[in-house]
Structures are given as structure tokens and as C-alpha cells.
Write a structure and sequence with these properties.
Helix content is 64%, strand content 13%. The protein has a five-stranded parallel β-sheet, sandwiched between helices. The chain is elongated, with a radius of gyration of 27 Å.
Length: 204
């Protein structure tokens, strides 16, 4: 089983060394490290890690900008490090995929459970988003097919079942999704309707 790739970003050299030792001792792959925000952005984009451990006091490009990039690119979950706990950090990162906040110096007993929880919960989140997108696509396809059925029923005098079977048959014959057949029916109908309107205007 592939070990998750973890990226570390902190200006604190001692923190980096401690994190790296704990993670590697546990068998995790440390994909890379950065000591400033600009370097972190470049390496995260290149390495595409499975988890980012990000120090809130990162030098250069701030940790919030790095977190915003990770969120926009949907790269990985984040564990945020801080010198002390304060609600301000949580409020500023509320919209980012931060799954845990740890106070430095980080201990093995808090780091490892946080890593496992972040990886597992992010995987669930990604899976739910995929399922949601699939559901949205299904609903969108259903709306298109319903509209095409209505056109066939109106123009050809078919029943709802007959209109559906016609779309289904064309889909099977052409080996394309029913949505594509339905979209073609709608486009053809709109073109015909537009043409008739032009002809009616000319006659008048």
C-alpha cells in the first residue's frame, strides 16, 4: 500500500526536523519541505502531496495565501501549526481544508492521530464531492431528456413512453448517451422553430 506523501512548510528549522523524524519513523513519505511561502507554493504545485503540514507563521508569502492556493487547486488537506492556540487562526482559515490545528512544539501523540484523521476525512470529503457531482450530472441529464421527450410528444404525437423509447433506441444504435441524443433533438427543434419564425416574418 502506498504511503501518503506529506509536505512540510515551516520557517522553524527545529520544527521541520522534529516533524520529519516523527513522520519518517512512522513510515510516512516526506515529499518535500519549504522554509518560506513562495518555495512552498512552487513545491506543492509540483509535488502534489497528499497532506500539507503548514506553519501559520510562515515567512515570505503567508500561510493564508498558501492555504488559499491549496484550497483553490484542491490539492490536499492541511494541518496548521501555531505557537499558541487562538480563535483568530480558525476564523481566518474557516474556508480552507484545514483539518487540524496543533500547537508547537508538536508531540508525536498529537501529530500522528491528526495526520490519520486529516487523510481519512479528506478522502471522505473528496468521495462525497464526486458523488454529489455525479448526482448533479444525472439530474441535468434527466432535465434535458424530459425536455426532448416533450418536443417529440408535441411534434410527433407520441406518448411519453414512446418518446422515451425513441431516445433510448437512438442512444443504443449510435452508442452515445441519451443526454447527447436529447440535446440533438432540442437543437434541431430550436433551429426548425427559428427557421419557421423567419419565414413567417418574410410572409408578413
Amino acid at each position: 500500500m502506498r504511503q501518503p506523501k506529506i509536505f512540510l512548510a515551516s520557517t522553524d528549522q527545529a520544527s521541520l526536523q522534529t516533524l520529519k523524524q516523527i513522520l519518517q519513523r512512522e513510515g510516512y513519505a516526506v515529499a518535500g519541505v519549504a522554509q518560506d511561502g513562495s518555495q512552498a507554493l512552487r513545491l506543492i504545485h509540483t509535488l502534489q502531496p497528499d497532506l500539507v503540514i503548514l506553519d501559520s507563521e510562515l515567512a515570505g508569502t503567508g500561510a493564508l495565501e498558501v492555504a488559499r492556493f491549496i484550497n483553490e487547486e484542491q490539492v490536499a488537506p492541511i494541518i496548521m501549526l501555531a505557537s499558541s492556540w487562538h480563535r483568530n487562526i480558525i476564523n481566518k482559515t474557516r474556508d480552507f481544508p484545514v483539518f487540524a490545528y496543533l500547537v508547537k512544539p508538536v508531540q508525536e501523540t498529537t501529530l500522528l492521530p491528526a495526520v490519520e484523521a486529516a487523510l481519512a476525512n479528506y478522502e471522505k470529503l473528496v468521495r462525497l464531492e464526486k458523488e454529489l457531482n455525479k448526482l448533479k450530472e444525472t439530474l441535468a441529464a434527466r432535465k434535458v431528456i424530459e425536455r426532448a421527450k416533450g418536443i417529440l410528444m408535441e411534434t410527433l404525437g407520441l406518448t411519453e413512453a414512446e418518446a422515451y423509447r425513441r431516445i433510448q433506441k437512438q442512444s443504443m444504435d449510435k452508442c452515445v448517451p441519451m443526454k447527447a441524443i436529447a440535446e440533438a433533438i432540442i437543437v434541431a427543434h430550436e433551429l426548425q422553430t427559428g427557421q419557421r419564425k423567419k419565414e413567417d416574418i418574410k410572409k408578413s
